[in-house]
């Protein structure tokens, strides 16, 4: 039987974290190609360090996407994040673009041809998860870690808190009683600040109201332990302080460690890559299972082989909370949604340029948007799944 009383911790990082800067740039490149050609192929990696950005990878798309345009997109992403410091400035940093054509050997396995449907862009396993801990059907620790940083970013960008810098990390430890989240035992927040004279206590006075507002009422108590900028000054931030790379925050991007992860990153990849699209599909299915009241927790695993269309396996674990047969549910999920790469893309409209916005504050637990953004958060399969309840 699963433990009912315990502590669990998750972390988030802001859009100005070095790795998230790289995720943002890589996804800006994906969106640029999809905007011009919905069937474009992109596998883009970004490295950022002191006043330098390097963009590399493989693409297949229109010649209108030039290296100069990609460099411009990178600058605009960094500008929107807010970097105008000596060691990392959107206008002054050197940008090198090293993108080349996609391998023909990979393309022949992925492309549809004759009677062969489009195959998966790689082998791998992908997981999706949902639970009843929050209205968003997400684990509470990661959801509120994200919310803290989003609220602080909004305050910074609106001008309410101009002393805050773009780089920040949060960490929330949640106390569970009888399997449900009831409070926060510790809060960790490290945020860049532009005034070198500020102490940790000065920074805490600025951020504490936003943190309290981000958390459910009553979750912060007199016993909650606070660690705000525990190392002291945090003036040098972003890629000037630490080099960043695309794809290094895969647990932050998903469930904060509360669920398994197949290991594949999302950012910089077009939706033919099942690392991205099948992980979105698995979340979509898991969320619909929980929303249909078939379980209080649901983990779904999908597996693929490169060049092969259909998944090799579909696995469902309802963690002892299920109100339906798991094996029957596995069969039904294949029926309500085609889980080939093409089937996933068409069902969730993933060929739209909606990825740059996913690069920070989590790919899951967000609101579906009118233009197709976060389509994997919809719960439109509920009516198809409810009849399985028994």
TrEMBL record:
Please verify whether the record's keywords include Cytoplasm. Answer: yes
Q: Ranges for the S-adenosylmethionine synthetase C-terminal domain?
A: 236-378
S-adenosylmethionine synthetase N-terminal domain mapped to chain residues: 5-104
Note describing how the cofactor binds: Binds 1 potassium ion per subunit.
* UniProt keyword Transferase, yes or no: yes
Give, as in the UniProt entry, the pathway in which the protein acts: Amino-acid biosynthesis; S-adenosyl-L-methionine biosynthesis; S-adenosyl-L-methionine from L-methionine: step 1/1
CDD domains, A to Z: S-AdoMet_synt
Question: Residues that bind Mg(2+), according to the entry?
Answer: 19
Which cofactors are required for activity?
K(+); Mg(2+)
Start and end of every S-adenosylmethionine synthetase central domain? 118-234
| Residue ranges, annotated region (Flexible loop) | 102-112
The record's principal subcellular location, in a coarse class, is: cytoplasm
Q: Any idea which positions bind ATP?
A: 17, 167-169, 242, 248-249, 265, 269
Q: Where does L-methionine bind?
A: 58, 102, 242, 273
Question: Do you know which PANTHER family this protein is assigned to?
Answer: S-ADENOSYLMETHIONINE SYNTHETASE
Query: What does the UniProt function comment say about this protein?
Result: Catalyzes the formation of S-adenosylmethionine (AdoMet) from methionine and ATP. The overall synthetic reaction is composed of two sequential steps, AdoMet formation and the subsequent tripolyphosphate hydrolysis which occurs prior to release of AdoMet from the enzyme.
| Protein name (database record) | S-adenosylmethionine synthase
């Amino acid at each position: 039987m699963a433990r009912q009383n315990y502590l669990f911790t998750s972390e988030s990082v802001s859009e100005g974290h070095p790795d998230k800067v790289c995720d943002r740039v890589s996804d800006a490149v994906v969106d640029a190609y999809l905007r011009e050609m919905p069937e474009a192929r992109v596998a883009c990696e970004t490295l950022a360090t002191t006043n330098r950005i390097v963009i590399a990878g493989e693409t297949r798309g229109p010649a209108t996407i030039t290296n100069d345009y990609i460099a411009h997109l990178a600058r605009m992403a960094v500008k929107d994040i807010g970097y105008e410091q000596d060691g990392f400035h959107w206008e002054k940093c050197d940008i090198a673009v090293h993108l080349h054509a996609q391998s023909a050997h990979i393309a022949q396995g992925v492309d549809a041809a004759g009677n062969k449907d489009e195959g998966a862009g790689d082998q791998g396993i992908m997981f999706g998860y949902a639970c009843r801990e929050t209205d968003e059907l997400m684990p509470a620790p990661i959801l509120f870690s994200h919310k803290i940083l989003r609220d602080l970013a909004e305050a910074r960008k609106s001008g309410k808190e101009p002393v805050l810098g773009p780089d920040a990390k949060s960490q929330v430890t949640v106390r569970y009683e009888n399997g449900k989240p009831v409070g926060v035992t510790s809060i960790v927040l490290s945020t860049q600040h532009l005034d070198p004279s500020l102490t940790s206590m000065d920074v805490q006075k600025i951020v504490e109201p936003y943190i309290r507002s981000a958390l459910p009422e009553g979750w912060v108590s007199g016993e909650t332990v606070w660690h705000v900028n525990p190392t002291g000054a945090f003036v040098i931030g972003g890629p000037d302080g630490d080099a960043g790379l695309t794809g290094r925050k895969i647990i932050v991007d998903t469930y904060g460690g509360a669920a398994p992860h197949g290991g594949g990153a999302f950012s910089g990849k077009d939706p033919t890559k099942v690392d991205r699209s099948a992980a979105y599909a698995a979340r979509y299915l898991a969320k619909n299972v929980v929303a249909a009241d078939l379980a209080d927790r649901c983990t779904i695993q999908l597996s693929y082989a490169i060049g092969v269309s259909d998944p090799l396996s579909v696995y469902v674990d309802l963690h002892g909370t299920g109100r339906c047969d798991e094996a029957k549910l596995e069969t039904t999920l294949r029926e309500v949604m085609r889980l080939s790469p093409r089937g996933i893309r068409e069902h969730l409209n993933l060929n739209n340029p909606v990825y740059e916005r996913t690069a920070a504050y989590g790919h899951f637990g967000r609101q579906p948007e009118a233009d197709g953004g976060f389509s994997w958060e919809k719960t439109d399969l509920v009516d198809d799944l409810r009849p399985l309840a028994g």
